[in-house]
Amino acid sequence: MAENVTLSVSLRTSGQTAALKSGEITIPGVTLHFVEVEPQVAAFRRMVRSVEFDVCELAATTYMVARGHGSPFKALPVFLNRRFHHHGLLVRPDSGINEPKDLEGKKVGVRAYSVTTGVWTRGILQNEYGVDLGKVTWMVDDEEHVAQLQLPENVLHVPEGRSLAGMMAAGEIEAGLQGNAGIGREGPPTENWSAKATLSTDDYRELIPDASAREAEWFARTGIYPFHPTIVIKDEVVAAHPEVPRLLYEAMAESKKRYLEKLNNGEATAKADNNLRKMAEIVGPDPVPYGLEANMPSIEALMTYAVQQKLMPSPMEVGELFHDPENI
């Protein structure tokens, strides 16, 4: 680039981003000013409501909904978290829920309706198990990031002062997503908020038995490998500096490459690293693929699920959602 450009960036530190955030990898003509937000979910809200950062890690469904409402930023095909979603929906032992169709007529907890984990899970329930999502009452205890989003009538907010965790413990809801996406935390994702387990989930069971085997079969059959956050760049930055998407993509790809070397030689040993090694056994040697071609089945699936779940009125062209690093 002919001139030095400074970009504000909100991005979690992970194996894939560590070399970029540490300064080990630099971008010619571009200075990245990293703004740390804890939790990152709070940055999601700041980005979609006030477009606060030049570059931001953003939940995939939140991004699609925001872009559909005209938000002035566009994503790179960079996906920072991957996991499958046949597992992660817990049910009470006295719920009468023995198979996915039994969710119909019940109350199920998810932090917010547009949480990407919830969208993937509901998509699998509908398209793999025939669950009528409209017959399930989805209980939420947080607000949606995209303020313009109109929720379906079968999405209800918990009573004031209550949490999904407490309602699950009391038997007021019969099922809920585990962890931060549902019954494993309480309180809105405000600045300095941290996840807090409020009860043991040991007495709950997974809805779908032998989920790992089903996930592997599903991937082999469909090629769908669920992703979570992506990276968005403010449109006005790209208009002023058209090279930025390509340069940022190349830098993030190099950062990922260096991480995969550590993953493969055993140098990376954290829990997240070990989880990715297990993923590689299912999806192949790159458990965090970037780019459009490798991710097209997953992009199309998430968009389909978002439309089915009334988060988007219709699918968008992939070119409207993602910069193509091969043609920048």
From TrEMBL:
Tell me the domain of life.
Answer: Bacteria
The source organism is Aliiruegeria lutimaris
Report the Pfam families cross-referenced here. Phosphonate-bd (PF12974)
Identification of the protein by name = 4,5-dihydroxyphthalate decarboxylase
* Biological classification of the source: Bacteria, Pseudomonadati, Pseudomonadota, Alphaproteobacteria, Rhodobacterales
